[in-house]
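Recall that a protein's primary structure is simply its ordered list of amino acids. Everything else, from secondary elements to tertiary packing, is in principle encoded there. The following example makes that idea concrete.
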Amino acid sequence: MLISPPFGGGRAPVLARNTVASSQPLATQAGIEALQNGGNAVDAALATAITLTVVEPTMNGLGGDSFAILWDGKKLHGLNASGRAPAAWTPEYFSGKDAMDPIGWNTVTVPGMVSGWIALSKKFGKLPFAQLFKRAIDYSENGFPVSPVIARQWREAIPILKNQPGFSESFLVDGKAPQAGQIWRYPAQATTLKEIASTEGESFYKGPLAKSMVDFAQATGGCFAMQDFADNKPDWVEPLAFDYGEYTLHEIPPNGSGIAAQMALGILQAANAKQYPANSAQSIHLQIEAMRVAFADVYTYLSDARSMQVPVTSLLDRNYLATRAALIDHQKAGTYSAGDPHSGGTVYLCAADESGMMISYIQSNFKGFGSGVVAPGGIAFHNRGMSFSLQEGHPNQVSPGKRPFHTILPAFLTKDGKPSMAFGVMGGNMQPQGHIQFVMRFVDEYLNPQACSDAPRWRIDDLGKLTVEAAMPQGVVDGLRALGHEVAVQPTNSLDFGSAQAIAKLTEDVQSAFIAGSDHRRDGLAAGF
């Protein structure tokens, strides 16, 4: 692994036996404090995650979802803590609509994130659950200075969300967002956090907090019932494994869309992408095309695991991926439809401790603040329900108790059955795209996590348009255009490429050492001791 930064101007990676990386320095510090107080990597991740709901409300909140992949010292575990559609969400409920709403109550599924905190703490944590809330409660009650990127996101959300129930009352002061450096306090959120902490989440799903959310929904246009919350539970799942070179990439299975990254890597292997120099226009062309092919399948077939009509084994079948790779012209950009495999607004964080435990964790309100709906006590709801389909017979068609297609993806690399790197990239459909770029940098180019994060990225946006970061070399941009790609170069301060954090293992010693990287695109920080 190359330790020195190859891209210039980037941060140096952090080397330590215990480390945390997240998108907000105050949250990272909360995780480090948990480790210093005798907690393990899971405690650190949870303290960080809980604090992030306060200090980075533009990307996540108490009404969101979460996923995790963790190495407990002996094996990998996967956790799906995404919520389900309320009982009222029948196809008939949405009759007359061609697509799900992007904001508002009709995008809000039951929040699963809090249940994920509880599950992780009970199964793997060492510290008392309530202790993990210390910093989050303190920042809610006493305030914290809003960082520059978050202030910008906050300001940009106002025209879109200001009229949603509870938003302006909760997140605006005199109709305005806080400026960078301004102290933000939210005592009502502290009260909610204390209730979650003291009841170990029971209140959130079956008690006073659940009733408050249901009453607010019934009064402002939502359709939640108490039973919707009582029925919620997270699921421990077996992560999907896919070999790439000497490493294995692990992703959460559907309804998570991490399989798209695994499919794209398989397509790239079948297309012999390594024949082209790393970072060349030709190599990036193949990466883009492989991702387009994988998306064509994923958007057609992926859904809640219970309604998948195509098994994931078929989508990851090497022979099938080879047929998909054969569609790609190495000299020209193309368009792709789904194949037939039957024949064959988010925060990410990671933590590791000297015992060897590592966790890759992600939670989200989806698009920025999410739905814009904020229940009393600062419970900002996600808009994950907008990812359902209203197409009759589609595997992802909305129905009661169903989980929607999900874009938030924790990732994990192993080598020879041992942990190698916990990593993740934020930003909607950027996440599987970021995963393949991150993996190729790490596996093929031997770059450290910070350098993998610093490297300029490309992205196929939600409309299918290709964009690249301003730091992408002009020769690569020109080369892509010569291959038929329409390329938009985003400004230097663009947030369209998400953010990333990663922690890789350095040694095989009993007392592990790690190298961590955190993205400059957000206000992230990696720290350790």
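The chain has a mean pLDDT of 94. The two ends are 21 Å apart (CA to CA).
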